[in-house]
Amino acid sequence: METDIDLLIEKVSQLNDLNNLMLKNINSGYFRLSREIKSIKEAVVYLGMKTVQNLLIIHIIQQLFSGGEEKRNRMFDMKMYWKHVLGTAVASCLVSEKLKKGDKYKLFSYGLLHDIGITILDICLPDYMDKVIEKIFKGLHQVAAERIVLGGITHADVGAWICRKWNIREDIINIIEFHHTPLYAQSDNEYIKMLYVGDVISNNYYQRLLGLNPNYEMDKQIAISLGLTDEDIREMVEEFPAALEQAWIIIGYCNKL
Amino acid sequence: MKEHKIYGLIENSPLLPKLPDNISQILFYSKIQWKQILTCLLKKYRN
């Protein structure tokens, strides 16, 4: 295992752009590290192998998916989507901090990956995606809108399907597949539930910004099973905009998209 | 079981990035596949 980690470090370090992008983001301030991380090796030691791998994957996916043609008259707003993705990462960290449970760095990286199915749908089937958005604007829940337009499946199914095809790590597939239905997950349950709560907080925030009436009710059973009270959730909802603003400024995440 | 038609549409979309089958190995620890992935990534980043 150690040799393999060394190989990962060595190979990523050889890819200057990827290496620099990773270090820039890790040192952006968001992770509140006590000192500057100067190499991928230090990042692995500090953040853990899985988190570094997750961050690598999201950078690679962004690179691979950023070359699409200019969208014309689209209902779907990709920039808003990436804001929501960052929002879910930030809100999931708040959940982890509130509960003093889990690895918040790992949760942050899961948050960045959880909606990859939407990226795939937007790139490959933009007309379908626009029809979904039309229905959301008419007041339908995203999952219900997708089931109608896509014939019974959702972005979570699409994301899990593509990740299986790509042989991506099972915990990531679980997060992606069950982030709207955590009670169906067979493993990684705590992380999926924490991400679910973060996703609901982020979704409701952005729906309000879009002038929509948010209809993402949080499943009380899931919140209770995590040990979250109504007061905890209210506090996180209040803390969220400032935490997101901070992450937004520090990371400048969407500016490069 | 027959695959959902949406998956077929995605697979046939010319816009789906042609990832190497083993990109996932970024998440695992196999040296051989790592070399293939990184060769692919190297090309992508250099272009």
From TrEMBL, chain A:
* InterPro entries listed in its UniProt record: HDOD, RNase_Y/CdgJ
Tell me the ranges covered by the HDOD domain, including all copies.
1-182
Q: Which Pfam families match?
A: HDOD (PF08668)
SUPFAM superfamilies per the UniProt record, alphabetical: HD-domain/PDEase-like
Official protein name in the record: HDOD domain-containing protein
UniProtKB/TrEMBL annotation, chain B:
Could you identify this protein by its name? Uncharacterized protein
Annotated organism of origin: Herbinix hemicellulosilytica
